[in-house]
Amino acid sequence: MRSMEDELFPSTPGKVKIERAHTINRQLHRCFASTSTMFLWALFLIALTASYLSFQSFVDSSSRYLNASWGGMQWEKQIRESSAASRPGGMSVLVTGAAGFVGTHVSLALRRRGDGVVGLDNFNNYYDPSLKKARQAMLQSRGVFVVEGDINDTRLLARLFALVPFTHVMHLAAQAGVRYAIENPASYVHSNIAGLVTLLEVCKSADPQPAVVWASSSSVYGLNEKVPFSELDRTDRPASLYAATKKAGEEITHTYNHIYGLSTTGLRFFTVYGPWGRPDMAYFSFTRNILQGKPITVYRGKDRADLARDFTYIDDIVKGCVASLDTAEKSTGSGGRKRGPAQYRIYNLGNTSPVTVPALVNILERHLKVKAKKKVVEMPGNGDVPFTHANISLAQAELGYKPTTNLEIGLKKFVKWYLSYYGYKPRSGGLAA
Ligand SMILES: O=C(O)[C@H]1O[C@H](OP(=O)(O)OP(=O)(O)OC[C@H]2O[C@@H](n3ccc(=O)[nH]c3=O)[C@H](O)[C@@H]2O)[C@H](O)[C@@H](O)[C@@H]1O
Fold first, then answer.
1. What range defines the domain where residue 24 resides?
2. Ligand 1 centroid vs 306 CA: distance in angstroms?
3. Is position 145 within any domain?
4. Which of 74, 246, 283, 347 has the greatest CB tally within 10 Å of its CB?
5. Distance 325 CA to ligand 1 centre (A)
6. Which residues are catalytic?
């Protein structure tokens, strides 16, 4: 049986076996001596660990600096050049999501007329990043530099604003897609909520504060059945998490407008399509599948009703975006303090003529000269709404917005781009890759 003494002074490696004949004082002395040795060892180990950790963090931070996709003199030079307007009184615009579909087109349009544009994009892999890289290359060739980075990166955003006094921010970076929110809800919170707040925090602190124009979505109308959808209709019944984050964006921008005097304009886009579009959207994936001889799934609503969308052509959307930037009033805050009330606007940017999904497929079949293999299924309950239809009278009155491209013409242009981008050649009796 182990004695109390054994318990107090166990026989462990590094410790001599206690000679029972020694007095308790002697034992205590030894114990104390060995404790101080241990203490010294512990100190030594702590010092060693600390110096290792600080060396590691030095290596980390230097390699982060060396490998960072942003930073450095050349990078700063590109930003300064890209942000410089080439027309008198031109704007200097930070376009987030610049390698995205709408972002690319808006950046090009601004650059073409002589505004300064700096793009920002995180090149995530929600869809094929090579398409984003191709858009970036096209932008670069037209004088628009796209920074690789995330809107959640406060340091990067602060650096950009330190380099350039942006007059406007065109905020198009987002996690898009209605149905993907079921699979990856966190990505919507990350980009559409956290990213938006990070960006607005930097904008409100910037001096001068930029005016912000950003992409909301027609999906905020959710279960609204009153047609056409007007900006005054209810938007408190979203049908998807995506829609909920876009609606939250409208509330969040209102808060920054109210507290900090940020001029903000939210644009509710209605199913935007066109060349350089998004591969996750129906018109794009249908085209791909039809050409590859694969089946397409066409959703159908309650009572076998066809689903319909107010498909809006990209060039019309670009005009709405540019007009919003042109009519945006200056923010009224400075150094994070509001000086007076600032502009807060929300507009529908749609086409005002909904088309059913089967009609969309018919148009594609005609332009592609290939019959689709259709699988018609009940619309899954994953966030879709049965139809959208925009009332655009407000945008018409205040922005001069007037869409001019119908789905027939718009899809013809899309198909032409698709065939050339993916290398299809016309052949008698069809197309070949
Ligand atoms: O305007 C908007 O608010 C939204 O428009 C699109 O969302 P959505 O209208 O759902 O566009 P698609 O995914 O291209 O779907 C268009 C229609 O095709 C249908 N569809 C989609 C996919 C499919 O495989 N089959 C199918 O029938 C959908 O149910 C829908 O009725 C975009 O994906 C959103 O990012 C955007 O915010």
1. 1-67
2. 13
3. no
4. 246
5. 27
6. 242
